[in-house]
Amino acid sequence: MTEVITKLVVDCSTGIATEVPLTAEELAQRETDRLAYEAQEAERLAAEEAKEALKASANAKLKALGLTDSEIAAITA
Amino acid sequence: MKLIESKTLVSAAFAIEFTSIPQTFTDLVLVVSARHSGNDNGLSIQFNGSTANITQRHLFGTGSAAGSFSNYFTQVGLSVRTVDTSNTFSSNTIYIPNYTASVAKSYSGDGVNENNGTAAWQLITAGLFNSTSAITSLSVNGQATSGGNELQIGTTASLYGILKGSDGITVVS
Question: What are the tens digits of pLDDT across the range A7-51?
Fold first, then answer.
């Protein structure tokens, strides 16, 4: 059985609230938003991972130069 | 400030929409306490049945970080996600001045969500509805994600109207 997605419509002129199914257009927009959100999230996570990898790489190079963790923290904070 | 309508969901719904908004006030205030089934904590707004002609800037804090972003799915506030603390709801206030004006309408929003954990968000939004049409309807919904986005039972939206000079003290010229 397909789930029916609804919205609550409140008519301010009468005070009557009615639960109505989303139109085909609203459902399509909802799906478009969902896909856009997923794409944007994937992009954000990839950027975060890349940044973390750069940070780890930079830390490793600083350590190879002989800096301690405290010294690295002092210049990167 | 006069309450126009307030509704609390008794069953889950994608959105709460106010239609036939009286055109007799000066400003509108929308107060929303929300929880929804999505993976994202965004609460979005639509004017006159559409997300068109909306641009926004946001400032946020997460509990461990702070930043800014733009035009994110007409987000104007925050909701509490399914993964956050049970039986908690967000608090949002959206202020819409001069909603009947035949010029572009600016608005602002502030919101916080609840979570017994490190990540609990705060959000401030500055928005522009670039339309010359008066606002006659508006709706709020949770951000669409793979986890769904239905507003949950107990979510409440209240719409208030503010009329200039209605305190009996202020002189309007």
Answer: 999 999 999 999 999 999 888 888 888 888 888 888 888 999 999
- What ipTM describes this predicted complex? 0.90
pLDDT: is A3 or B101 the higher one?
A: B101
Contact A10 B19 (CB under 8 A): yes
**How many domains does chain A divide into?**
1
The whole-angstrom distance between B44's CA and the closest CA on chain A is 11
- Residue B56 included in any domain: yes
Whether B43 and chain A come into contact, CB under 8 Å, resolves to no
**Would the CB atoms of A37 and B73 count as touching at under 8 Å?**
yes
Question: Which is more confidently placed, B134 or B71?
Answer: B134
What SS3 state is found at A69? helix
Please count the structural domains in chain B. 1
Chain B residues near residue A3 by CB distance under 8 angstroms: none
pTM of the model: 0.86
| B144 CB within 8 Å of a chain A CB | yes
> What domain range includes position B60?
2-162
Q: Tokens 């999505």 belong to which residue? A: B38
Helix locations, chain B, DSSP H: none
Cβ(B45)–Cβ(B82) below 8 Å: no
All residues of chain A having their beta carbon less than 8 Å from the beta carbon of residue B20 are 11-14
CATH code for the domain in which residue B140 is found? 2.60.120
Asked if A31 is an interface residue toward chain B (Cβ–Cβ < 8 A), one would say: yes
Residue A65 CA neighbour count, 13 Å, CB half: 9
CB A23 within 8 A of CB B59: no
More confident residue, B83 or B18: B18
